[in-house]
Amino acid sequence: MRALVVGGSGSGKSAYAERLVARLSPHRTYVATMRDDGPEASERILRHRSQRAGLGFITVECPDSLMAACQGSTDGVVLVDDLGNLVANALFAPDGTMADAQTVLERLLREIDTLSQSYQHVVLVGNEVGAEGRYPYAETNAWVRVIGALNCRIAASFDEVTEVVSGIACPVKGVLA
């Protein structure tokens, strides 16, 4: 089973995805994509770690590429949380330069395909973007375009898609277990 869980910031999408993964397999890999680059990020990382404490996850830190997650056990489920961080880390280098958006999109799609072939179950947490319209910064618009295109491509090929709104899971595609 391959599932995409999307939602806005603070919607409860990560908690929902963790509960879904806990039902799928006792062999759980958590792919953490957030780069610890300051106090706010550190606080969110700690909150997510405590949120999944006791759920039996093996955590793999992958802020730049999903390929390290393809090296572990493949008989269970992998949860990638979240695609927005992964896209931002791939698009924006610490030195302020920006990568080509299409190149980033294509690389991440290949990595997700490899991950999907490596695990029995894959759950990806994405960001619901685009409803806000255009942003005043070209960099932000590039991020929105990549994450939007990534969500569309994943949703088309995955078995299930769920949008989490205010903590409520709203099935979009597939039957949820």
Task: Describe how the helices and strands are arranged.
Layout (H helix, E strand, L loop, with lengths): L1 E6 L5 H12 L3 E5 L6 H13 L5 E5 L15 E5 L1 H9 L9 H18 L2 E7 L10 H20 L2 E6 L2 E6 L4
Parallel strand pairs: 1-5, 1-6, 2-3, 2-4, 4-5
Antiparallel strand pairs: 6-7
Helix pairs in contact: 3-5, 4-5
Please tell me the CATH architecture by its name.
3-Layer(aba) Sandwich
CATH class: Alpha Beta
Annotation field: number of helices: 5
Query: Distance between the terminal alpha carbons, to the nearest Å?
Result: 10 Å
Indicate the low-confidence ranges by residue numbers.
none
Question: What would you give as the CATH superfamily?
Answer: P-loop containing nucleotide triphosphate hydrolases
Number of DSSP-assigned strands: 7
Main sheet attributes: strand count, strand direction, barrel closure:
7 strands, mixed
Based on Cα principal axes, name the global outline.
globular
Strand residues, percent: 15-25%
Determine the mean pLDDT. 90
- Please estimate the helix content: 40-55%
| Structural domain count | 1
Secondary-structure-based class equals: alpha/beta
